[in-house]
Amino acid sequence: KVGQPATPESVTLYAYRPSDASLDFEMPMTQEAPGRYVARVSFPLKGVWDTLVEATRDGEGYRVNQRISVID
Fold first, then answer.
1. Among 12, 19, 53, 58, which is least packed by CB within 10 angstroms?
2. What CA–CA distance (Å, rounded) separates 46 from 59?
């Protein structure tokens, strides 16, 4: 709110496979630098995935989603 990096209690990456929900997964993200979080992910299949990152603090969540294409 004041232009400073976020300090959430947790950040989680969710990955959803639109064509096969059995491949959906989630993993915690780790802080790399103030306000910067990473997850090292290996997708089980190429193709379209819907991703969602959720940061939570004090019981409130902030979500960002994006559809991606995995090519390798």
1. 58
2. 35
pLDDT in tens, 2-14: 788 878 999 999 9
pLDDT at 1: 63
The secondary structure of 37-51 as a DSSP string is EE-----SSSEEEEE
Q: Which of these, 23, 30, 24, 33, lies nearest to 52 by C-alpha position? A: 24
DSSP bridge pairs for 60: 57
The two three-digit tokens of residue 38, written as one number = 């990473």
H helical segments located in 1-72: none
CA distance 51 to 4: 25
pTM metric for this prediction: 0.88
Tokens found for residue 23: 């491949």
